[in-house]
Amino acid sequence: MLTATYTLVALSVEHASVRLSLLSFQKYVRSTLMHQNRITLSQLEYACENLNSLYQACHWRKTEMYLIPALREATERADQLLDELNRLNQSALLSIRMLQDKLGSLADVRDDQVNLICDSIETFCSSLLKRLEKEEQELFAIARNAIAGETWFSIANQLMMHDKHLEEMKRAGLAPGAAVEATPKPAGRSTVNTLRVVDDGQISIPGLQVLPIVSIDETGAHPAPTTVARSTRQLPAMK
User: Fold this and answer.
1) Strand pairing class (179-187; 190-198)
2) Fold that domain 2-198 belongs to in CATH
């Protein structure tokens, strides 16, 4: 089970990075937007950009790409939990789309609408944080017991290939705009994903860095985000 332990530790490290970014943006919203009587269009656009980047970073995690497909094939024990994780994901996606609708219809947001937008951002962050928590506390435990040893070896190999592809893309100057495509590949008793670089630019796996705590001046202006990974991929369609 050493391979399983190695794989789950690697996935936990990725979880920690995403969680820290979510908490950082949540702190930014609580310390700034929640204390304002109005939100400018530029602030709303900034929030939407960051939420989209965070959603993409969560959506393209290795847990989502490799572990969950393998677990679905290995056992039905996780089906109820996976359905719950999907509901949390849909809740976050709905929050982004609500804000995008506001972005397209308002020049600025005032009074009670500020509370509505802040509540939506809070729902987004809370939903994805809850999902990460459930994955680590419940999903990983089921996976450890349900996935066969040879499949763990295949998943671990896929994680290494994933990192190798990203490193090659960085050296070639392709990241973060270069595209990758996940395609299914049989591996023993499970199906895992392998990455193939493509040229259409439609799907990208963003690099993830910690979000800054951004201060907003009296005019409501703010600097452009500098440490948030920007994704070229559109939001996935809701199921």
Assistant:
1) antiparallel
2) Four Helix Bundle (Hemerythrin (Met), subunit A) (1.20.120)
Of the candidates 40, 33, 34, 37, the one whose C-alpha atom is nearest the C-alpha of residue 108 is: 40
Residues 47 and 99 sit within 8 Å (Cβ to Cβ): yes
**What single string gives the DSSP state of each residue in 37-74?**
SEEEHHHHHHHHHHHHHHHHHHHT-HIIIIIHHHHHHH
CA distance 106 to 136: 39
Query: Closest Cα to residue 124, out of 222, 202, 42, 26?
Result: 26
Tens of pLDDT, residues 17-38: 999 999 999 999 999 988 888 8
For the segment 66-88, what is each residue's pLDDT rounded down to a tens digit? 999 999 999 999 999 999 999 99
Q: What is the pTM of this model?
A: 0.71
